[in-house]
Amino acid sequence: xxxxxxxxxxxxxxxxxxxxxxxxxxxxxxxxxxxxxxxxxxxxxxxxxxxxxxxxxxxxxxxxxxxxxxxxxxxxxxxxxxxxxxxxxxxxxxxxxxxxxxxxxxxxxxxxxxxxxxxxxxxxxxxxxxxxxxxxxxxxxxxxxxxxxxxxxxxxxxxxxxxxxxxxxxxxxxxxxxxxxxxxxxxxxxxxxxxxxxxxxxxxxxxxxxxxxxxxxxxxxxxxxxxxxxxxxxxxxxxxxxxxxxxxxxxxxxxxxxxxxxxxxxxxxxxxxxxxxxxxx
Length: 281
Fold this sequence. Notes:
Layout: E1 4-8, H1 13-24, E2 32-39, H2 44-48, H3 57-77, E3 81-88, H4 91-101, E4 106-110, H5 125-132, E5 137-140, E6 152-156, H6 161-177, E7 180-188, H7 194-214, E8 219-226, H8 228-238, E9 243-247, H9 258-269, E10 274-277
Parallel strand pairs: 1-2, 1-4, 2-3, 4-5, 6-7, 6-9, 7-8, 9-10
Antiparallel strand pairs: 5-10
Helix pairs in contact: 1-3, 4-5, 8-9
């Protein structure tokens, strides 16, 4: 499913959890894994991992690399082919560059770094990676609600090409992991003719659900009317989604519709892992 996986890491417990959860979900099965860490002499996370008197660059790099072994060691013990790459620079730039050079087909990241430093990845590194990446990016929240294996894939669909691209990947995953696909669409409360829109959305999603069922997939759908973000989180919780699979944009990058407009908000609010599929690439 994913041949080459890059895990963005800083040695924190959240990074360790992201790698562990990706493995437990079955997303790393048969994958070659590269754990990537970027550091700088003024990087608070990197400096937090070294002794105060260990100021030379070699010592900093070696200690940082040692910290990343807390991520690679469990993966190796589980039988995964895993290596480490450490380099100076900006984390998001290193991750994007490495994903291209390694021909990665999945990036994995945690939402937060070290709590003591308050390094919020989703507001900095992760958001930049999602914005620039041409590869799917798995974001694992700090307190992710997960279970072993993927049982339910929650896929928001606004019928844009980008959302259908996310659905195409979800179909590959559902087949490989024997998981159910639950499609989601929301008719926002701001629309005056919401009843008409709700009926059209229900009909369109039923057609899509029937197509998936005919292809042999276990499939369901949820069409709701209300506040988009709240409905999204509530519905994904109600179906106990193992993984949310969604596009980073709606109908176009210039004209974001509801799917693109809530991607960042979902990442900040949900407690479930989110696989963001880029519209490009």
